[in-house]
């Protein structure tokens, strides 16, 4: 039997979810095999077959030699063997390409592509490793000028798309959070990752990362591995999140994994709490933590926000702010960091009515979805119509689907490639027991598919947990037009008897009894009636106590009610802004040859909405008159609210274009006369001629998406000077 507090202690939130839903045998199949993985399997088989044919041919040649066969016979056999070896080399090359993702004739490997992106980002100060002059700190990054501008554009669009268009209540709560709040939410006890230590040096590693690295490394480098062994390692990669400490430890031992830096043996995995602890005030008596997410700030304000909203449901509150997680060994650059910006929405809804008034606006959308059954049967994500996914029961309810659709629109409008965006449903093991349904928006990058937004129907869990801990009822009411007769569960703990039996623990036993749900209470009633007493688990006491007939009465009574009081469900989209931005960088990056063909020029094809600077202005040649015109245009752009940059350095026009392309600036104005100028679009490199007075209006129109570049091209004469481009 579960007490109210038991529900609390078995909670899980976000990462807690996967860590604490231990399973004894991972149920995910050799799942999530992409077509690429399938061809990898057949290549591994082909390689093994080729090797055995080569071995057989080698043996045959040796036999020919020992049996004194003719020279020409032996030469023919050697020739055939060499041909087989060549075929083997070709399969090896294909297999290597398939593993590293260079298949399909792509010019660059994933690693080389990532390196090119990261080099450009660091060189142009999109981001900088924090505290670099002191050799930096892993998992901490600064955003430099263009990075700040991109982030502020992404957040402005987030506010527009969600807070304004959905009429959400925005709040801004402190990062420093008292312990009691995070105790109630479960973070103090359960927000952990499993860690192992180098037994000699004490260096810490994330246990699942070491196992992941081992499996990936073997899959990439051991080309002679059998297809069966490869399938086993892939299966481990697929169920990694679900492995318990014991399972992880066992695999680490089985595969002989040692500390990567020293090759020393490793400890058994044990949980490490990811929160940064602090103390509030000078006494040291008031423990606190840097918040690991922004959501709790919203939950604890529910009562006031509900009142502010006129005591009406549904409504959503939103918050953008820093979150802190003391990641064990952060890797993957901006994707896994120790301090990051979260943008979270908590949409509160009646659990009995999860319809959404604007559902029809998204129900026709079609995009890549990866429901549970496709994952379990080893298939790939498929394009599905959101409305059909709801009507077939794949997505639990309309409100959850509405947010999935809105997240899709948000990400694709930012510039995320829709072919590299999928919505993956959590497997049953990944979800907390109280969650109704969860989907992650995953974006494919050079690191693989990355969870960037989590969208979860968390039912009433969070508000209940804070109600229990704070004693403040975080509930909503529905007033009935006519009073209704309802049957109500009444649990009355007999405090005198409980006090005699449990003394100082009486309060916790009372709370646990009162927190029973209907089924639990009726089961207890039946047991008390048949046996006179029953064993009852009180989680806050961490023990089971005996409850007898005299200690509690449980009944169902008919009552007239004027209103219904209930704990709202919450649907929570949670956006990792840094991850979205990094994926956007990768999806926007490309290289094109310079005009001379002697170098590769880097370009970020940011949509104007996200571009850090919308327009550059430069005189074609150094000349005072042109510089004056450039200054005036820049002033008029600024007055129109368009971020712009003047470049009067006098370097060649090609170099100046290359510099702005690297920053992803979509438009460049070149002043080559005092009356009219050219505007060049970054990706097409098309140019038009526009009078000086019109420049700001044209750039504003196209930057703000009121017209497309194609519309503008129709209105203004094309400019075709050869000198103007690189
Ligand atoms: P979670 O609360 O764990 O579901 O995380 C919410 C979102 O925060 C995820 O979808 C990620 O986009 C982002 N996130 C989580 N952990 C990190 C991290 N260490 N660094 C950057 N982003 C993160």
How would you portray this structure in words?
This protein is α+β, with helices and mostly antiparallel strands and 726 residues long. The strands form 8 sheets. A 9-stranded mixed sheet has the order 3-10-11-21-16-15-14-12-13, sandwiched between helices. Strands 25-24-26-27-28 form a 5-stranded mixed sheet, with helices on both faces. The chain is globular and about 95 Å long. It binds adenosine monophosphate (AMP). Residues 14-15, 293, 325, 327, 336-337, 340, 342, 451-454, 574, 576, 578-579 line the site of adenosine monophosphate (AMP).
Q: What order do the helices and strands come in, and which of them pair?
A:
Blueprint: H1 4-9, H2 15-20, H3 35-66, H4 71-100, H5 110-123, E1 127-129, E2 141-143, H6 145-164, E3 169-170, E4 176-178, H7 179-185, H8 187-190, E5 192-197, E6 204-206, H9 207-221, H10 227-239, H11 245-254, E7 270-273, E8 277-279, E9 287-290, H12 295-300, H13 302-308, E10 315-324, E11 339-349, E12 366-370, H14 372-376, E13 382-385, H15 386-391, H16 398-414, E14 421-425, E15 437-445, E16 448-457, H17 461-470, E17 476-493, H18 495-502, H19 506-514, H20 518-531, E18 533-538, E19 543-548, E20 552-566, E21 569-576, H21 577-588, E22 589-593, E23 600-604, E24 615-619, H22 624-639, E25 644-646, H23 653-662, E26 667-671, E27 676-681, E28 687-691, H24 695-703, H25 709-715
Parallel strand pairs: 3-10, 12-14, 24-25, 24-26
Antiparallel strand pairs: 1-2, 4-9, 5-6, 5-7, 8-9, 10-11, 11-21, 12-13, 14-15, 15-16, 16-21, 17-20, 18-19, 22-23, 26-27, 27-28
Helix pairs in contact: 3-4, 7-17, 9-10, 9-11, 18-19, 22-24
This protein binds adenosine monophosphate.
Adenosine monophosphate (AMP) binds at residues 14-15, 293, 325, 327, 336-337, 340, 342, 451-454, 574, 576, 578-579.
